[in-house]
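Supplementary Text 2. Reproducibility record for the structural model of the 429-residue chain.

All settings were left at their defaults, and a single model was retained for analysis rather than an ensemble. We include the record here because the model underlies the residue-level annotations in Supplementary Table 4.
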Amino acid sequence: MNILLTGATGFIGHAVLRALLQDGHQITACCRKPEELLSKSGNIKPFRMDFTSAGSIEQWLPQLNGIDAIINCVGIIAESKGQAFAQLHAQAPIALFNAGAQAGVKKIIQISALGANAEAESAYHLTKRAADDALRSLSTAWFILQPSVVYGDRAQSSALFHALAALPVHLLPDGNRQLLQPIHIDDVVASVCKCLEASRPAQKTLALVGPSPIAYADLLQNLRHRLGKPPARTLALPYRFALAAAGFGKCLGEPILSKDTIAMLSRGNSADPGELTALLGRPPLGINRQLFEKPASQAERWHAQLYFLKPLLRVGIAWVWLWSGLTSLFFYPHELSYQLLAATGMTGVAAPIMLYGLALMDIALGLATLSLHRPRTLMSAQLRIVLLYTLAVSFTLPEFWLHPFGPLLKNIPFLLCLLIYRLLEGEKP
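Retained model, structure tokens:
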């Protein structure tokens, strides 16, 4: 078949792409950055399309000539700058589905989300439901697959759950009454492939879940055991306090931790696996064998423990810059600062310009670090500035290397912190 696949570089999309290639299909791989496609098969036709600006039927029609099926795997778990639920989950997919119907595409498969139904309340579920309803209104053959939490290699949710599990205390919103029913990525992929079969009855909405639900607290404790850690203490957190705590998610640079996420967790995320079992011809894979019984790798253990240290490292870096600037302006005697500047050749009018200029620059760097604006570029600039500081002072005041408080020596671990944060910021899920 000739298939247009959206989100081809994402977690689910990439896994679906590999399976479709193994089955011999021709794929038009739609994604923002085709250069990130890992598969280089001749059966792939890369197609650059950004869902943030794909809102009209006319944008899709030229790519649908000769296409037999559409598979939409685009989705975000949290909004960020330039990526809104309404656009990515509703407007762009609806335009694609309507274009597919107009172009005579035989089958459309939508990867939606469990909970995108009449009881939906969160923006995440409501926008998924809008696209689902639009697809249901079309006369073409369609399948709406609604997975629970999807786990497997590269899963963003798995990384977050492991990080939460690694914490010494597990906060349980709303007294741990939530049930989850995670599904393995292989079962999601197998479901998509089954739906492509010509004999498969279409126009169905199907819940994709594991064989049985698991309580959120048990999920975390099992993941913690997998990380090689003893059981954690638990603390029941009233719903209103959980919502308030989740509001700090964006401050930590973790948009998944949001009020919407807490609301969705409190609602639960489970369903009857009977229809999925019938589709696959076997029960879905169990999380015990697929995850809990497999010891975590060293990389997984490191990642779980560094996950929440990364935002703290950012705050620490910002505080160094802010305190340096504020101290120079308000606390450290200016006469002593001018003496140090004089030793470097800065005297007269140049001295106060340099003093106030550098102090204000430090404060600006601290505020920029807290704002998360272009963090990798910012870290690179800070690396250069600290190196320049170090070299300049080493040349003009070499005795500072022998100072008991180590004013220059401390630049070495600070440089390493800047480098580590820059590398961590480059590891986008």
